[in-house]
Write a structure and sequence with these properties.
10 helices, 339 residues, NAD, seven-stranded parallel β-sheet, Rossmann fold, globular, NAD(P)-bd_dom_sf, UDP-glucose 4-epimerase activity, UDP-glucose 4-epimerase, Epimerase_deHydtase, alpha/beta, single chain, 2 domains
Length: 339
C-alpha cells in the first residue's frame, strides 16, 4: 500500500492504538481523534498528531475532515460494555449508532472514499453455531450489539448511494499486547478475562470469579475465540487494500476456541504462579461457545494470525502487565544521573 493519510477515531484506546502502531510501522501518516474517556494519551506516539475531541462536537469533526484529503477513516470510538448497555440502552444507541451515523455522513460530505468500522461478534447473540461465519443470522443480544449493527446498515447504504467503501470487522475477543512492549491493555474497570486472570495470579486483585461450570463444553466453562490484538490490527491494513474496490464484512478471530479453564491454565503455565479462583453463578446471556469462522478474511486478503497460540497471547499480556503495574500511569524508573 502506498503511503497514505488516515484519520483514526478512538485511536488512543486498546485496539485503536495498536492499529495506529501498525499503520505507522507500514509508513503511513496518521491523525488520532479521541476524547480520552477510556483511551490514554500515552498510547499515542509523540510523532502522531493527536486531537482531543468528541464526536458530539460536529463542528470539530467537520474541521478535521476538511483538513484532507484523507485516504480513509478508521472508526473505533464507541462505548463497549455489554452489561452497561443493558442498563443504559439509549445511551449506547446515541453514542454508538447516532454518532456513528453523523461520522459516516461527515465522511461522505468531505469525500472520504474508505471507511473501516470496528464492529463486534456481539451481533450474533446466543447462537449455537460451532463456527460463526459472516452468514450466521444477526440477532444482537444487547443494545451494544444492536448499536453496532445499526452502523453496519448505515455503511451499506453509504456505499450504495454515495460510493463510500467500507469494511465492517467483527471482532471476537481481542487480547494480548504489542510484542515489542510499546502498548498494552489498560481498562478501568478491567472486564476482559486474560488481564483479570493475570492480575489474580500476580496478587493484584482478589480471587477470580469463574461464572458457571455447567455449560455444554468439555470442561463446563464458556469457550471463546481469542485473537491477538496485533493480528487484529493487521487485519485492518489488509481490509484497507480490499475496499479500494468494494465493501466487505469480515469476522476476525483465530477460528479456535479456548475455555475459561484453558485461560487459567495458560496463565499458570506462563507466569509459573497459581491462579486463585472460585466458582460463581452463570451470568445471564453468556453463550456457551463463540468461535469465529474467519475463512473469508483469510481467503480474500491472505491475512493469517501470527500469534495464534494461547500461551503466546497470554505471554505478551503478562509482560505488559509486569512492566506497567498501573497501566499507562506507570512511570518507569529514570536512568541514574552521572556523578
Amino acid at each position: 500500500m502506498a503511503r497514505s493519510k488516515f484519520l483514526v477515531t478512538g485511536g488512543a484506546g486498546y485496539v485503536g492504538s495498536h492499529v495506529v502502531a501498525a499503520l505507522r510501522d507500514a509508513g503511513h501518516d496518521v491523525v488520532v481523534f479521541d476524547n480520552l474517556r477510556t483511551g490514554h494519551r500515552e498510547s499515542v506516539p509523540e510523532t502522531v498528531r493527536f486531537i482531543q475531541g468528541d464526536l458530539q462536537d460536529h463542528a470539530l469533526v467537520d474541521s478535521v475532515l476538511a483538513d484532507g484529503p484523507w485516504d480513509g477513516v478508521l472508526h473505533f470510538a464507541a462505548l463497549s460494555l455489554v452489561g452497561e448497555s443493558m442498563q443504559h440502552p439509549f445511551m449506547y444507541m446515541q453514542a454508538n449508532a447516532g454518532l456513528g451515523f453523523a461520522l459516516v455522513d461527515a465522511c461522505v460530505r468531505h469525500g472520504v472514499k474508505r471507511f473501516v468500522f470496528s464492529s463486534t461478534a456481539a451481533l450474533f447473540g446466543m447462537t449455537e453455531d460451532p463456527l460463526i461465519t459472516e452468514d450466521t443470522p444477526i440477532i444482537p443480544g444487547s443494545p451494544y450489539g444492536e448499536s453496532k449493527h445499526m452502523v453496519e446498515r448505515a455503511l451499506l447504504w453509504a456505499d450504495r448511494i454515495h460510493g463510500l467503501r467500507s469494511a465492517c470487522l467483527r471482532y471476537f475477543n481481542a487480547a494480548g499486547a504489542d510484542p515489542g512492549g510499546r502498548l498494552g491493555e489498560d481498562h478501568t474497570p478491567e472486564t476482559h478475562l486474560i488481564p483479570l486472570v493475570i492480575d489474580a495470579a500476580l496478587g493484584r486483585r482478589a480471587e477470580l470469579q469463574l461464572f458457571g461450570d455447567d455449560y455444554p463444553t468439555p470442561d463446563g466453562t464458556c469457550i471463546r475465540d481469542y485473537i491477538h490484538v496485533t493480528d487484529l490490527a493487521q487485519a485492518h491494513l489488509a481490509a484497507l487494500d480490499v475496499i479500494r474496490d468494494r465493501s466487505v464484512v469480515y469476522n476476525v478471530g483465530n477460528g479456535h476456541g479456548h475455555s475459561n479453564m484453558d485461560v487459567i491454565r495458560s496463565v499458570e503455565r506462563v507466569t509459573g504462579r497459581r491462579v486463585p479462583w472460585r466458582l460463581a453463578p452463570r451470568r445471564p446471556g453468556d453463550p456457551a461457545r463463540l468461535v469465529a469462522g474467519a475463512g473469508r478474511l483469510k481467503a480474500e486478503t491472505g491475512w493469517t494470525p501470527r500469534y495464534a497460540d494461547l500461551d503466546q497471547i497470554v505471554e505478551t499480556a503478562y509482560r505488559w502487565r509486569l512492566a506497567h503495574p498501573q497501566g499507562y500511569r506507570t512511570r518507569l524508573p529514570a536512568e541514574p544521573a552521572c556523578t
